[in-house]
Amino acid sequence: MGSGITQLGQFLWHITPALVIVLGGGFLVNRFFVRKANLGLLVDRIATQLEVLSSDCAEYWCSDQSELGEKAVILEAKLKARILHLHSLLRVVEKKYATTHRSGNEFANQILDLQQACTGGDFEVAERAADRKQFMKAVTAIHKLNTAILEKKL
Amino acid sequence: MRLSIAQQFSDAPWGRYPTDGDFCGENFREKLLWPALQSNEQVVVDLDGVEGFGSSFLDEAFGGIVAHGYLTGPQLKQKLKIQTTNPDFDLYVRAIQRYIDDASYGSKKLTPA
To answer: What is the residue extent of each domain of chain A?
Structure first.
């Protein structure tokens, strides 16, 4: 009985350094590589969403309401839903990959600017004419957010 | 007083002016929000249950109170509380604050339909 405990003690004594190295290595790999790779995937997804948003904005803001007809309603719903989805993805980035001093609020102003630019002005107005100025505002806001999120990946 | 947009107005608010539809920002402001603000010290607007908002609706409904000269920005902020349990709708809460801050007091006149 006593020698069994001694053997177990010796076994643990020998295996502990290896276990510490494996666990520590796992932690470091996760901390610096897997985490970074996951952030990269999330940023790529946001960038794709921004591209689609830009294309929907181009179609919506560069056409008269009469030209678009029923499609305007679909585009309006898509724009609102996509902005909400982007906001929710950005919240994940802020929560999981926050940088210390501005944690939890890094993209607050950019997403607000984006929402205002994409769905402001004569958005959902029945007699809307094509508004290239509003489109320009939307594209600028999209690109600003795109740059900010890509910086996060680097 | 508590005002639920989804329950007392529409779960799909839409547009800025009455010509855009019945559930537009101007109708919300004139028929629900402004009367509630006139007769209550504090009005809590609940955003839950709504599919989503366009900036045009929010600007007209909330910024419109200031732009039409009903209340100043600080007066409105004192009387109004925006509530939501949906963390994604935090975007709309901040947007409303911004439209109130950005609105220029008395810059618009309401033209009767």
So the answer is: 46-153
